[in-house]
Each structure stands twice: as C-alpha cells, then as structure tokens.
Amino acid sequence: MKSSTLNSAEKFDASRANEYARQSRIALAGYDACQDLVACMLAASLGSTVSAKVLVVGAGGTAQEIIAMARLEPNWHFTAVDPSESMVETARQQLALNNLLERTDIHLGYVEDLAAEASYDAATLIGVLHHLDGDDAKRQILRSIRARLKPGAPLIVAGNQYAYASQPLLLAAWGQRWRQHGASPDEVKAKLGKILQGADPPHSEAAVQKLLHDSGFGDATRFFSSLFWSAWMTCKL
C-alpha cells in the first residue's frame, strides 16, 4: 500500500503543488461547490453533534474541504493526512490564512501511521482513489480509514471514475474545459495524453460501490457529479 501511495505522492511535487488550486478548479468544474456539499452532507449525517473529529485523507493542496467544513461547523476539529510534503505545506498555508491551524492536526504520511486506537466521527477521501494503482491499494486505504472510524460513521469518497478512454465524449468535453480557460490546442493535447496515462480510476459507479462494500462500508449515495468526477457518501458498517 505504501509503495503505491508513495508513487502517487511523487506526482505532487513543489511545482504541481503550487499550481494545484488553479489546475484543480479547471479540471473539476464545480470544485468549490463539491467541497461545500461535502460539508453539508457530513453536517446532515452527523445531525445535532456539537463537536466532531473528522479525518481528512489526502488533505494537501487547497485544504478546501477543511475550510468548507470549518465554516459550516465551528466546533469541528480535523486530522489532515497527506504523503506529499509539498502538498502539505500548501495546505498549511491555506489553513493559516483561514485561522484553522489550531483546529487541525496535520500529519505528513499515511493513514496507517495514525494511532490504531484513533477514533473519528467522520472521514473524507477526496481526489485520492484514482491516483492509487489497482483495486488492492484502493481497498487498503479504505480499510485503514474504516479501522479508525466510529461505528456507523460517515465517509465521503470523491474522485474520478471510468476508464478515461472508454468515455470519448466526456474526455473531449474535459479538453474543451481547458480550452475554455485559455489552453492552446497543443496544451489541451498534452493534458489529454497525461490524463490517459497518469491515473487508475475505478471503471464505473458499480466498481466504486464494490470497493466500498469489500472494505466494510454500506451502500453509497452519490450527491455530486461533473464529467468524470463523482462524490458519494457511505457509512461504516
């Protein structure tokens, strides 16, 4: 598992971390809306819980999910985990700008590095699964999260699905999205080539559901979709 996530972390070096906020908002139309809905879904699931401990896996970069949750729920606290030093530093800067460092424990590393007895009220795994090679690595991170959740706790999973080449219309629209934001034809071609080689997303929503079931989670409810990207909420069984 760690070798797979290490390879994924290497993708997010300093240059990519520095441009992540802009790039992610182009690649995912509705980026901020998705993060806002993550906060809303967890708040709705946890109900009248005054305070909650939320595990945020793959928190590097914008830390936008933490910012959105913290804005909605001022008594929630967060544990942020990410294996990329550059992405963690970028997230730390965003958390500092939003006065959230005191409410966030930041861990450079992996879910497995957290104490086995850690117990969280909820968790998020956003933009991570499609960067892990193979179903075994995907199940392993899901099981590691499950082991640190309270019974019945909600989990938000969000990321790309489909084998990209299997959806030529979506892929073409994704390229047009970049063109819409000023990319030249050569730049669009390069980005399309990169996405076709650079990730291993689950190949369908059914595949996502199976990964969750295999890892000890219940049926998932999809609440956001944008081209290849979807977001679901499930709960620990």
Structure explained in plain terms:
The chain has a seven-stranded mixed beta sheet with strand order 3-2-1-4-5-7-6, covered by helices on one side. By secondary structure, the protein is of the alpha/beta class. Helix 2 packs across helix 5 and helix 3 crosses helix 4. Strand 6 and strand 7 form a beta hairpin. The chain is built from nine helices and seven strands. It is globular, with a radius of gyration of 17 Å. The chain is 47% helix and 18% strand. 41% of the residues are buried. The N terminus is likely disordered. It has one domain: 3-Layer(aba) Sandwich (Rossmann fold), CATH 3.40.50.150.
Essential attributes:
Rossmann fold, globular, 47% helix, 237 residues, 9 helices, seven-stranded mixed sheet, alpha/beta, Methyltransf_12
Global mean pLDDT: 91
Number of strands: 7
- Computed over alpha carbons, the radius of gyration is 17 Å
**Unreliable parts:** 1-6
User: How many strands, which pairing sense, and closed or not: the largest β-sheet?
Assistant: 7 strands, mixed
Strands of the biggest beta sheet: in what spatial order? 3-2-1-4-5-7-6
- Shape descriptor: globular
Under CATH at level 1, the class stands as Alpha Beta
Span between termini: 23 Å
Helix percentage range: 40-55%
Keywords: Methyltransferase, Transferase
Protein name: Class I SAM-dependent methyltransferase
GO molecular function: methyltransferase activity
InterPro entries: Methyltransf_12
